[in-house]
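Its record is set out here:
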Amino acid sequence: MLVLSDVRLRRGSQVLIEGADLTVFRGEKIGIVGRNGCGKSTLLALICGDLAPDAGEYTAPPGLTISWVAQELPETDAPLVEYVLDGDVELRQVEAGIARATQSGDGARLALLHAEYERLGGYAARARAARLCDGLGFDPEDLERPVREFSGGLQMRANLARALMRRSDLLLLDEPTNHLDLDAVLWLEQWLREYAGTLLLVSHDRELLDAIVGRIVHIEGGQLRAYAGNYSAFETQYAAQREQTRARMIRQQREVERIRAFVERFRAKASKARQVQSRLKWLARLETIAPLHVDETFEWEFAEPAKLPRPLVSLEEVAAGYPGRRVLEKVSLTINPGDRLGVLGRNGAGKSTLMRMLAGQLAPLGGRVTFASDVVTGFFAQSELERLDPRSTPIGELASRGGELTRSWSEQQLRDHLGRFGFRGDRVFEPTASFSGGERARLALAILVARRPNLLLLDEPTNHLDFEMRQALLLALQEFPGAVVVVSHDRALLRGACDRFVLVGRGTVREFDGDLEDYAAWLRAPATGSPTPRADSERSAAARREQKRLEAEARNRLSPLRAEQRRIERRIEELGAERDRLERELADPELYTTRPLEERQALAQRHARIRMEIEALEARWLEIGEALEAHAAAE
C-alpha cells in the first residue's frame, strides 16, 4: 500500500531520517516510536503529502483516502456536531449535490443522490457523530455549542472526532491521547481495534500500542527499523539486538587489537612483510559495526522531604466548586505519607477540582479541609507548562519559582539540579520559548522537585513525555516516601504508581473497589450505576488489593534504606573527588620544598580521615545492598 525506498527526510539542515526503507500493507496497524524530535511527525507529514522526501522515493496508490488530525485549533462558530459531521467529506458532497439538484429541479439527479445518501448512512450520520463526541468525553449539551467556545484541549478532541468521522483507507494519528482522559483513551482503544483501514499510530502510551498494533517502526539515530509484534514484543527484540551488537563490537575490538599488536611487532621484519600486509588488508575490509546509539538517560529523584506529618491533608464532608456551581458534595478523604492514590472519572466530573482542593488552591464551599503545618505540596497541573515564562531560561525559572530553597542556591547547585533532568551545558541559558513540549514538561517537573514536597499532586504529568521520561518518572514515584495523588490517562503510570483508586462522578468521591481492568469493565457496563466491580471479579480484585497493600508496606519499609543508599553514593562520590585531589597534592614534589611541615601533616591527616570515612560508608552501603537483595529474594 505504501512504499518508502531509500528515503531521506530533513528538518532545516538537520537530517532526521536517512536511507529509510519501509513497506506498509493494506489493513496493517503500525506503531511508530522513538525519542522526541527523532522524526516521527515528519514521517507522518511525508505520508499525508505535506512533505516530499529530500532523497529516495515514496509511493502510495492513487485515490488513497487519508485521514489525519488537524493540529490547528478550529476558529469556527459551527456547532460541535456539525463540525464533526464535516469530517465525512463524501457525505457532505452528496448533501451539497442534493441542495443543488433541489434548487434546479433535477428530479432524476435528486433521486440518485438520495440513494447515494442512504448508501453512505446519511440518515444515521448525526447519531454517529454524536457517539464519537460522547466517546471522546463531550456531554450531550455540548453538541450544539460553537466549537470556538471550548478549551484548547476540547478543541483538539473535536479535531480527533472529525478525523475519526471521515471514511478513510489510511488513518494517521500523532499522539492522539495527549488531550484525552482515561475514559476517552479506553473508548478510543476499542474504536481503533474495530477500525478496518490501515493505521499509523505515533504514541508513547505502551498499553494502547500493545492493544492495537501488530508491528512497530522504531526511529533511532536517523535509522528506521521495523519489528514484528506490539510494543512489548519490540522492547524484547530491541534489548536482544543491542546485546548482540554490543557482544559483536567487543569481539571485533579484541580481534582488531590482536591484529594491530601483530602488525606493530613484526612490521620491521622482512620475513613477516607478506603476513603483515595481509592482516592490514583484512583490517581494511573488516565490517564496520555501527556504534550503539547512546540516548540521553534520565534518573530523576524526588529529594527526601524534610518532614512527613500524618495526615498530610484531610477533607471532612467537603463541598467544592465555583461561584454558582457546586461540583462535589460531602467529600471525605485523608492523605497520609506513603499513600498512592489514582483518581478516576469522566472528563468534567470534578477530578481537577479535587486536585485543586488538595493543593489548597480552591477554598471549600462547605465542610472542612485540614492541612498539616509542615505539608509541602508539589502540584503539577495541566496548565503548568503555560506558566513557564517563554522569555526566561531554565536556570532563571528554577531560581525564581523553585521556592525558598532554590533562591539560596548557587549557580552550580542550580545547574547540577537541572542536569539531572537533562538540561546540561548552555541549555540552561536558552529561552524556554524554543523548547519542545517534552522539554517544558521536564523543566516544570524539575521546578516542582526542587521544592522538596511531601505531597505530590500530578494532573496528567506524562503529556509530552516519551517512554524513557515516563519510566524515569515512574521509578522516581515508586521511591518517593511522601504521598502521591495522580490523575492520568497513562495506564502504565497508574498501575506502577498507585495502590488504590477513587472514582469522581455524580458529585461525589468514592473509593473504587478494584483495579484498572475492573474500571474498564465497569465503563463497558455503566447501567449498574455502582462503582463496585461485578461480583464475579470481586475475589480477584480483593487479592490484587491485598497484594498492592503488601507492596505499599514493603515500599514504606525499604524507602528509607534506598534513600540512605543514594545519600551514601553521593557522599562517596564527593569524598572520592577530594581524596583524588589530596593524593595529587601529596604526590607533588614541590609540596615538600615550598610548604611548611604543619600544612603537609594536615593534608596527610585529612587524606587519612577521608579514606577511613569512605571505607565506613562503603561497608554501610554493602549492608544496605544485602538487606535489599534479601528482601527481593524473599519476594
About this structure: The longest helix spans residues 538-586. The CA atoms of residues 380 and 445 lie 7 Å apart. Confidence is low (pLDDT under 50) at residues 289-294, 532-537.
